[in-house]
Write a structure and sequence with these properties.
The chain has 150 residues and is mainly alpha-helical. The protein contains six helices and no strands. It is elongated.
């Protein structure tokens, strides 16, 4: 059973990274009705992936693997949790913007977005991807028992 949860945890992580990368590419290629619709859809995939990642990850911590007592004495694990929360907070701004496009998209219009706002959103997505890369480093450290202070 632990292997199944590990599989879903990894699958959700790959889906999350894919969704962010696709959003970034679509934003760089210019805002069209079709691109904006795809961005909104991929942002929903991003949100579902993040939720799945969190739930499955916590199930692994509390019911599988080494147990919560071990993980909560691991600096890389605590770093992963903090970084995951920070990435989640960063994602609020782009998600709110993407959701505001729905009215225009329902009418078949390209959302009107200030170019500075689009640059800010792209910058945030870059930071989110960098955070995910750092999160992977923490996962590798955690898996090797580095930073365990128990």
């Amino acid at each position: 059973m632990a292997a199944i949860f590990a599989f879903f945890h990894h699958l959700a992580a790959f889906a999350l990274v894919t969704a962010l990368a696709v959003e970034l590419v679509l934003l760089k290629s210019g805002l069209t009705v079709e691109n904006a619709r795809k961005i909104v859809r991929y942002d929903a995939v991003y949100g579902m992936s993040a939720g799945t990642l969190l739930v499955v990850g916590l199930l692994r911590v509390f019911y599988f693997e080494k147990g919560a007592a071990y993980y909560f004495q691991s600096a890389p694990f605590l770093g992963k949790l903090a970084l995951f929360a920070a990435i989640g907070l960063l994602s609020i701004y782009p998600t709110r913007e993407f959701l505001s496009w729905r009215a225009a998209l329902k009418q078949g219009r390209v959302p009107v977005v200030d170019p500075r706002k689009l640059r800010r959103i792209r910058s945030i997505i870059h930071w989110e991807l960098a955070g995910v890369a750092l999160l992977l480093l923490f996962a590798a450290l955690m898996a090797r028992g580095i930073g365990y202070f128990g």
